[in-house]
Design brief:
Layout lengths: L1 H13 L3 H9 L1 H17 L4 H16 L3 H18 L3
Helix pairs in contact: 1-2, 3-5, 4-5
Amino acid sequence: MAGDLAFHQAVAALAASGLFSFVLTAMNGILLDSRRASYRGRERRGATHESTIEAHQHIVDVIADGDGDRAAEAMTAHLAETGHDLGL
């Protein structure tokens, strides 16, 4: 889970969004709790932690390609899946 938080912090840093980085850091404890709940939701639906790593890798790949639209789509899909795992 620490790696998951670090990934999202790194994406915020790449976006050069000081405000977003600040918010992520300030909410670190709350986000850690939500990660735990998300992982439990993911396990309930039979997904593995590997699927999270694959989603993160896809996001990294499209960022590396310099395709902002695809990066936004990949992150939106990842966050939507996480929302589903949280029951939102």
